[in-house]
Structure formats: structure tokens, C-alpha cells
Amino acid sequence: MAEGNAPLIELLNVSLQYEENNLVVESLSLAIGLCEKVAIVGETGSGKSTLLRAMAGLESLSNGEIRFNDQHLEGPGEKLIPGHEAIGYLSQHFELPKFTRVEKILTDLYWISSEDASKIYEACKISHLLQRDTRSLSGGEKQRVFLAWLLTRSPQLLLLDEPFSNLDAMHKETIKAVIDNVVDDLGVTCVLVSHDPRDTLSWADRIIVLKNGQEIQSGSPEYLYQMPRGPYVAGLFGRFNRIITDRWSVNGIDVRKKRGDQIIVRPEQLKVSKSQVENSVKGKVLQRAYYGSFDDVEVQLEGETVIARTEVGAFNAGENVFVLLVL
Predict the structure, then answer these.
(1) Do 250 and 280 meet the contact criterion of CB atoms below 8 Å apart?
(2) N or C: which end of the chain has fewer CB within 10 A?
């Protein structure tokens, strides 16, 4: 959240507990500002979805407080019908009415002007679906229709639970574009959780990493990818190496003196060549894995093995090579 901006929603020392001595979320504090795109990520069981439900006013807190628009957010034990009218929540298990036209679903319950409706339909990329029966929609189309239905309530905050799960690559990109439209064109703040953090790198302004209900690290996608706080965070966002720094230098600077005994580097931070260059380390290619637009090659160095990213077909198993660290 940008400094000086009042938070739209704020969590103050929040804990959530299902069973005795079993904290799902523990002493978590965070603030999310207007029109921010925030992703909450972590391994299965890290507390992501439970935390999102609490932010929607659908889970009772064991400790702490959630404030929305600087007002106490009531939980299910404090009001007859849980939830908040200005918070939209998209569950993983949403359902649309069957045998019903899309347009009827979107216009029956809440009245909105035709101009506002057009903005929502365009933002959610569903204008061409309005006359369709819900039974004929794909999973991704149903998701966008339900999202549009939530937006007819004019929420300030949108909470999305695993919106990329069970979608192919094309529909993932579509829903990312839709959420961008919702934030940029409709001025809605968005928080989502994902079990595959790599889906959030190109979308989020800020990513919060949870493990066992606690925040491990947070920051911009670039910061978390390049400077992860340990193997857990690094592994969430893709392949990585833990290298022993005493053999490496960058531009003549001893990496060990600058960064410690071991550091985490991504495969693309290791450059492989067939001829020796200054500060490079000699090794041998053990195997090559093809990924379409690049290869990952496994290189045996003296005392350690690393994964480096290269051009397709540039190196083959058995070749002697030199590896340069680029930070």
C-alpha cells in the first residue's frame, strides 16, 4: 500500500482458530489500499482461503480485529446475515442458476443503469454471453458471469478464492485481464488467493506469502522473485539454485563477502558459455530439459550442481562449459 493512503481494509493482529491449539492464521496484520491488486499465496493448508473468508466477514476471529473503511467488520457471530454489502466474495464453489439466461441473472436482483451494466459487461468480457443459457457456458465463462453479478452490487472490495484454478492458459489470461479491468475501469480493490503463486507474478501489485498461517514475506512480485527469504518462498515462484558463494564473484566483487555463505539464484541468473570468461566457473552439462522457448541445463560444478537457463539447443549433455553468475 502506498505511504500516506488510508487503508480500505486493515487486519490488526488477526488470528483464526478451528480447533483447540490449532491456529489456521496467527497474529497477522496487514493493510490494503484503494485500487490495490494484492495476491495472498502459499502452500496448501497455509491459511489463505480461511483468511479471505474472514476478510469477507464470513469467519469469526479468535483474536484481533478487521476494519473496513475504518469501521469494525462484523463477523458471522455479530450479525444475522454474514458478509458486508460493499465486499464481494467469489468462492471456489460458486453456482449459477440453471435454465436461465445470463442477462436475467445479472438484472433481476439489483437494479443498475444500462450505462453501468454495459461497463460491467465490457469489463468482464461477457457482452456476447448475455442471451446464452447458463448450461451452455464453459467454466471460465461461468466465472466471469458470476464476477459480473458480484459487481452489480457495486462493491468496493473484491475477494477472489483461487480464480485461476481449473482454467487453461488462455482462460487464465482472460480472467487476469478481466480483474485488471475491474480495478482500473471500475475502481474496485482486489485481493485474491492462489495455490500457484506463479499465476500472480504478472498480475499483482503486491504479494503476501503465508506459511502455517503466518506471513513469511511480502513485497512486489519482482522483489519476491529476485530476493526470496529462503527456499520456501523461492520454490513457490519457480526453479532456483542454492549456491555456495566462496567460488563466485561478480564484476570482481566477492559474493560471499557481500551476501553470505549461500545465496538463492534463479536459473536465468547463471549464464553458460563454451569458452571461459572472467569470473566464470568450469563445469560439465549433465542433462538438458526443453521447455519450448528455452532450455534448462543441469551443470555439474566442483562440489555442487546448478540449473541454468539457456537458448534452445545451445548445449548438450557431456559438454564442458563455463558458468557465470549475474546478479
Answers:
(1) no
(2) C
The 10 Å Cβ neighbour count of residue 12 is 15
Cα-based torsion angle of the residue sequence 180, 184, 187, 191 in order, rounded to the nearest 10 degrees: 30
Domain 9-236 has CATH 3.40.50.360: no
Q: Which of 234, 227, 190, 251 is nearest to 39 (CA)?
A: 190
Whole-number Å distance between alpha carbons of 137 and 94: 14
- Residue 327: closest CA among 227, 213, 179, 235: 227
R_g of the chain computed on alpha carbons: 24
Long-range contacts of 126-132, Cβ-Cβ distance < 8 Å, separation of 24 or more: 126/102, 129/102, 130/101, 130/102, 130/103, 130/106, 131/101, 131/102, 131/103, 132/101, 132/102
What is the total residue count of the chain?
327
> What percent of the chain is helix, strand and coil (3-state, nearest 5)?
25, 35, 40
Residue 197 carries which DSSP code? G
The mean of the pLDDT values for the chain is 91
Grid coordinates given for 244 = 555456495
Give the number of other CB atoms < 10 A from CB of residue 96: 16
Query: 114-157: per-residue pLDDT in tens?
Result: 898 999 999 999 999 999 999 999 989 999 999 999 999 899 99
Q: What is the mean pLDDT of residues 192-207?
A: 93
Q: Band of the pLDDT at 109, cuts 50, 70, 90? A: low
Q: Fold for domain 241-325?
A: OB fold (Dihydrolipoamide Acetyltransferase, E2P) (2.40.50)
Domain ranges of the chain: 9-236, 241-325
Instruction: Tell me how far the alpha carbon of residue 299 is from its chain's centroid.
Output: 31
